Amino acid sequence: MIQTVNLQKLFATEEVETTALHGISMDVRDGEFVAIMGPSGCGKSTLLNILGLLDNPTAGEYHFYGTEVSRMSERQRAQLRKGSIGFVFQSFNLIDELTVYENVELPLLYLKTPADERKARVEEALTRMNIMHRRNHFPQQLSGGQQQRTAIARAVVAKPKLILADEPTGNLDSANGEEVMKLLMQLNDEGTTIIMVTHSPYDAGFAHRIVNLFDGKIVTENFHV
Amino acid sequence: MLHNYLKIAFRNLWKHKTYTLINTVGLAVAFGSCLLLFLTAYHELSFDNFHTNGKNIYQLYNQTGLSNKGVPMPAPLTTALKKEFPQDIKHIVRVVSGGTIRYGDKSFSKTVRYVDEPFLQVFSFPTQRGARPESALSSLSSVVLTETAAKDIFGSENPIGKTLSLQDETGWKPFVVSSIVADYPDNSSFRFDMLVRFEADPTYQLNKDNWDDSYHTVFLQLADNVTQASFEQKLRGVVKKYYAGNLSNLKRDGSQPDENGDLYSLRLLPLRDLHFDPEVGTAEVPPVKKSYPYLLLIVAGFIVVIACINFINLSTARSLTRSREVGMRKALGALKSQLFLQFWGEALLISLFALTLGGLLTYGLLPVFKQVFRSTTSFSYFQQPAILISLLIGFLLITFVAGGYPAWFMARFNTIKVLKGGISLNRTSILRNTLLVVQFAIATLLITCTVIAWQQINFLRKMPLGYNEDQVISIPIRGSINGRQMLRLLRDRLSQQPRILSITGAYKNFGRGLDGSTVTSIMGFEHNNHSVQSHWQIVDYDYLKTLDLRLIAGRDFSREYATDTTTSVIINEAMAKALGDRNPIGALMQVDSGRAPLQVVGVVKDYHHESLKRKIQPNTLIMDQGWPIGYALVKIAPDNVPATMAMLKKTWEELDPNSTFQGSFLDENTDRLYKAEERLSQLFISAAIVAIVLSCLGLFAIAVMVMTQRTKEVGIRKVLGASVLSIVALLSNDFLKLVVAGIVIASPVAWYFMNQWLQDFAYKIDIEWWVFVLAGLLAIGIALLTVSFQSVKAALMNPVKSLRTE
């Protein structure tokens, strides 16, 4: 499903050049749950952004479902991203001016899903994430856990094959964090590929495989059975 | 999706009420002011555009060398022109004013114009009733009335075929109403209540072959294939043929030729330029300089620029609050173009709302505006499709720039950075700072111009005119009693009144009285082998005494000398200089070859008998009984003025029940001469206030944003021991630098423009350095006040709290 070959990412300002990724080659299979770990500044989020087609690598190859995407324009990446990748962030990134329902509906609007189907899918996602009763609330009126459940509902509503989660439990207490991880597990069990960046060994324990990064390189890979 | 965009737009506007209010109110005020200024400018520019033949109509004027232009023409000139150029001239129309109307036993003070027969064919004043334009003035005893005049005179009666009387020097004469035309529109330079045939003017028979008496204006409608330049070229031949004597005199006196090498020329002024030529334009609608309406449009543009800058600055500064939305929408697959359209659409929404509000503001304020600025513009101009379309294009352009830049700015946000919350407002955004500088430069420019214009107007107002302006009342004599007779009656009735100090009369008024007319009469003659030109004022006894004119040589007119009502004259210093005699007293002036020479009996100190825009010209006072007295001048005691005015009015109306009392003080009359300048400076003041308020509104909002951004910095500085004052200074400093930059840019520009403007005045102030300092300090003060409210608030914040907010 996903294959990267010798991915490089260089951030250059006028004064400094920083290499964030240093030859990352990895495969992620369909239905796999991969956790990426490592200390701060090791390149976890940079890798996740490239995998999520939010950014291009400086060098190397990235095959997304057999298509080489590393040289695509932003416009092409946006088209590909739409509907095939769902995002979950540490800070939820819900739009404050939209209700829970409207936030979850947003991906379907960009996919131009017909109104009836949109309604059914949003309600299904909300019910699944156990947030249906809060559908007309605004994000500020929700607890952290509820906000993250809404964000997950938004990530899954378009039924993407891949979900990228960037420290999804980072802003949550342990009970809410546990709940979120269970939801992700459940999605994975149903066949959704999940790549998650985390600092938490406990959360990483839910994954099939843990990739450890250090200074932009993969140092170890641990498999759970 | 549109539904989603609208929903989020409204929720955002509602959530950030201060921002929405500043943006909407700012734009609405700007749009409203702009529309008002646009209406005024358009009205001025539309003057005399309604005549169907307009592009072929010209007013004839003469120019002596490089000196002033003159419009009065001698009666035989038109006959000569018709004879010389029968193919080139389609119609020729002479115009002269005069007369009082009587119907039954009632007199009416109306504007009567003696015009040639084709007047209504040349000019477009549509017939409402009666004879058509071609035949309305075919008879010498026919008159044409405007709708309003007909209603005033005849009430509900049918005026067609009715006989009314018209008074001239020879008495009352009957005329029959042949036609009623529509009232002249507000943007017409021609104003009249009644038209009479030119040949019916009593002076016509005396003057029809007299080349020496120029007393009427001439309008030409040229044939379609004749251009102004080609006809003016032909007019050079006319001057050579008919003005040979005049030319040789000018040559002898060493007159300077004009740019074509002509000492004297006849020229054409296109009708569409009539309103913009102060020397040729009509007196009843004071012409304005052509730059005036354009100046208004520039000021309107300035105001819109300021409002747009606010919009751009506020929107870009506020865009941070939407950054997460942008990031998320991008992550979900939104394209830049989609985001641009979304945000631009929001700007369009605000602008549309502001335009509606501005339109309502214009509509509501127009009556007040018209009254305050004495404008005759109308909201109905917006019904013209061309105006509507150009306004729509202007509006879309404004929203495209003001809303487009912030939309483009937001659409370009880096997805990864905004999702991580990594974008912050740049404290030293070059664009924002440049825009703030431009804003304050415009505001300072307007403040400086306002101060200088106000100084000049004040200078003119306060300048001693050399005569008593605040105690003398001038009353136009327009009723059924002739001027000299009225003067006698007034003297009989009022000479015993202690509050009436002195009474006299004159042919011409000072400044512009309540009758709205100004007259200039200039006589030219040969004196000791050189030409002399002098203003000619017909006066009555006690003129010097009433006006407190200072006699510096000779004596005043006196009843003891019989010659004083025939050949004695009193001249001013400028005239004494023009005559060139060592001792002007006793000098003889041969003005009219057929009559006895006039003798100078007195010289008065120069006084400003004309507008202060011109240097004092030679002036001659004469008691010639052949000329009419048009104005009674009454000097009153300074105490209890309202009672004296009421007594004068009562006496006047008792003496002539058919006429209206239109007395006004001379200082009010001279003030009216500077109406255009006053109007301009008032408009400038208002525009400057709007500009300043809008600039401050923008600055305030930006200050709020920047202070919020710097909360953490303030907290840290306070923890490290900074005082409140030092923090206020630090925070205000960034903004003050921008304001100072604006002042530095604006000052030389203001100096240049105002210096140009002052060139129009013969008597003017010097632009002083302190004006710029004052305007600068004012701008700094206002800006400081705006910003310091926010900086003090930030500086007083508890550092524990401000650090926590980060």
Automatic annotation (TrEMBL), chain A:
One of its GO terms (cellular component) is membrane protein complex. InterPro entries: AAA+_ATPase (IPR003593), ABC_transporter-like_ATP-bd (IPR003439), ABC_transpr_LolD-like (IPR015854), MacB-like_ATP-bd (IPR017911), P-loop_NTPase (IPR027417). Residues 2-225 form the ABC transporter domain. The keyword Cell membrane does not apply. Keywords: ATP-binding, Nucleotide-binding, Transport. This is ABC transporter ATP-binding protein. It comes from the Bacteria. Belongs to the ABC transporter superfamily. Macrolide exporter (TC 3.A.1.122) family. GO terms for molecular function: ATP binding; ATP hydrolysis activity; transmembrane transporter activity. It comes from Fibrisoma montanum.
Automatic annotation (TrEMBL), chain B:
Residues 298-414, 686-799 form the ABC3 transporter permease C-terminal domain. One of its GO terms (molecular function) is transmembrane transporter activity. It holds the Pfam family MacB_PCD. PROSITE patterns: PROKAR_LIPOPROTEIN. The chain crosses the membrane at residues 21-42, 292-314, 339-366, 386-409, 430-454, 683-707, 719-749, 769-789. One of its GO terms (cellular component) is plasma membrane. It is found in: Cell membrane. Residues 20-236, 529-608 form the MacB-like periplasmic core domain. InterPro entries: ABC3_permease_C, MacB_PCD, Macrolide_Exporter_MacB. Keywords: Cell membrane, Membrane, Transmembrane, Transmembrane helix. It is a multi-pass membrane protein. This is ABC transporter permease. It comes from Fibrisoma montanum.
